[in-house]
């Protein structure tokens, strides 16, 4: 009996113990494989999401300047940035999307005048100022597709060509994207 080892020393070499050890290694390998699969899926989705265009188009906005007033046309508005999402046409800002717009009008005039900001012909102005030499107004209005934001200037004593404008700017920014838009 010298070559025979006691039973409790042979437990580690028994076939049942080897099966449990292999089973544990298999479970660990499966968990690692699932972890790798999740990492790979996350990376693929991240790259795919960066290539998908945004759900909404860029925010509609424009900043125009008015520096001179012409006879019979009022103040001429121009857009210094050609990459604006909104455009100037026939001395007015064209509205392409329905929604609420933030409208800011600023400027200093050499003479006292009356000024009205319109969005649609035949409608009341968004705001109207009388006998002012400067304007710094801001407001919110609901505008719709095909509306045109423009303003009229009237003077009481001076011809249009004599009016000098300093720092004249009109800013229009869409506040509620996601409504109807036409481009």
TrEMBL record:
What GO cellular component is one of the record's annotations? membrane
The Swiss-Prot or TrEMBL record annotates one GO molecular function as: tumor necrosis factor receptor binding
Bilayer-crossing residues are: 24-49
Entry membrane topology: Single-pass type II membrane protein
User: Where can this protein be found?
Assistant: Membrane
Keywords (A to Z) from UniProt: Cytokine, Disulfide bond, Glycoprotein, Membrane, Signal-anchor, Transmembrane, Transmembrane helix
Fill in the subunit field for this protein: Homotrimer.
Family to which this protein belongs: Belongs to the tumor necrosis factor family.
Q: Give the function comment from the record.
A: Cytokine that binds to TNFRSF4. Co-stimulates T-cell proliferation and cytokine production.
| Record protein name field | Tumor necrosis factor ligand superfamily member 4
């Amino acid at each position: 009996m010298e070559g025979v080892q006691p039973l409790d020393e042979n437990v580690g070499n028994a076939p049942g113990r080897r099966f449990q050890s292999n089973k544990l290694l298999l479970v660990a390998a499966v968990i690692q494989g699932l972890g790798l699969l999740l990492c790979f899926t996350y990376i693929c989705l991240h790259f795919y999401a960066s290539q998908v265009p945004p759900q909404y188009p860029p925010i509609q906005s424009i900043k125009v300047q008015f520096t001179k007033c012409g006879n019979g046309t009022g103040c001429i508005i121009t857009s210094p940035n050609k990459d604006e999402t909104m455009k100037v046409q026939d001395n007015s800002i064209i509205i392409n999307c329905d929604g609420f717009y933030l409208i800011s009008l600023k400027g200093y005039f050499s003479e006292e005048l009356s000024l009205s900001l319109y969005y649609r012909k035949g409608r009341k102005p968004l705001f109207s100022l009388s006998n002012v030499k400067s304007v710094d107004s801001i407001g919110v209005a609901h505008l719709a597709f095909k509306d045109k934001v423009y303003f009229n200037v009237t003077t009481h004593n001076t011809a249009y060509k004599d009016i000098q404008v300093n720092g004249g700017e009109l800013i229009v920014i869409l506040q509620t994207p996601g409504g109807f838009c036409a481009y």
